[in-house]
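pasting PrgI family protein for the record, 113 residues
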Amino acid sequence: MIKYYDAQQWLKERQPKRAKFLAVLVAIFVTLLTSAVAGLLVGLCFLGTFWYWAIGIACISLPYILMDRVQVRLYHGYIKGKPFWTLIKYAYSSTDYRPCYVPWWYWRWYYWW
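structre below
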């Protein structure tokens, strides 16, 4: 079953503020680190123009990571107390909190802008 992200529910969660703060930091740091690593790996193949490739690929990969809502799964996985490796596997391979791309969503997006 796919869980959808509800921002209002996030405000009502009962976890201590410290756990929420650490979960937000983990979600931000791991998301940015993944994007940077993708850029660095491609940059290693082109050492003459390393920084162009590293920054370019990192900037291209970050929106895709954000659109897949990896940061949301990192946040919720951390709050649930998952160990690090399980948390990473959950964030990048789970279908929980994936965006819903049903036909009515496109209609709503197109006409409500």
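The chain has one domain: 17-112.
Residues 17-112 form one domain.
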